[in-house]
Amino acid sequence: MAEERIFFKSGRLKIEGLLESRHSDRGVVITHPHPLYGGDMLNNVVEAIAQAYQEKGHSTLRFNFSGVSQSEGEYDNGIGEQENVRAALGYLSDLGKMNIDLAGYSFGAWVNALGLEGFAKANRMIMVSPPVNFIDFSFLTYDQKIQLVIVGTEDDIAGFKMVEGMLQTWNPEANLRNIQGADHFYWGKLSELKSLIHEFLSST
After folding, report:
1. Domains of the chain in sequence order
2. Exposure string (b/e) for 8-38, b if CB count within 10 Å is 16 or more?
3. What digits encode the pLDDT tens for the residues 128-177?
C-alpha cells in the first residue's frame, strides 16, 4: 500500500495531507515541525513515525499545517494549527478509525499538547522531541493520554533532563525513552526511533 495525497477541510480552509488507509480501526494523525523553519509533512522524522505506524497496521494521516505547501491559510502561532489537528482527527474518525493516536514531532508535539484537552477523538498521544527549551510548555498539566515521549540525548531543543522533569507533571506513568547520540534531527538514528515506536505499539 502507498500513501495517497488528499485534501480535507479545516473550517473554511483546504488542508493537504498524505493518507494511508488500512482495514483496521487503528489510526494515527502525525504533525510536523515548525513551519517558519521549513517544517512540513515530508520531514524525515515525520515520515519515520508514519512508517513505524504503517508497519504495525495502522492507518496514517500526516498533513501540512495551514500556509504550508498546498494547505490554505497562514501560520497562526499554534492556534489555527490546533483546528487543523482537530479536523485531521475528524477525517480519520469519519473513515471508521475508532482507536486514533496523535503523534507530533517538535513544534507538532507542542501544537498537539496545546489542544490535547479538546481532542476528544485522540485516544493517546506520543511526543517526539517536544521543544521544551524553545517553547513554553508550562500550560500542560496531567493527561493520561500522554503515553510515550522520545528524545535524543544530544538534543538541545528538547533537553532530556527538562523533559524528564516535566513528565512528572504531564503523566508520571508515561514511557520516556531516549536515543543515545541523537540530536533534534535524528540524523542516522531514524531506525532506532522507529524501533521504539514499534516496541510501544507492540506492548499496548
Report:
1. 4-203 (3.40.50.1820)
2. bebeebebbbbbbbbeeebbbbbbbbbbeee
3. 999 999 999 999 999 999 999 999 999 999 999 999 999 999 999 999 99
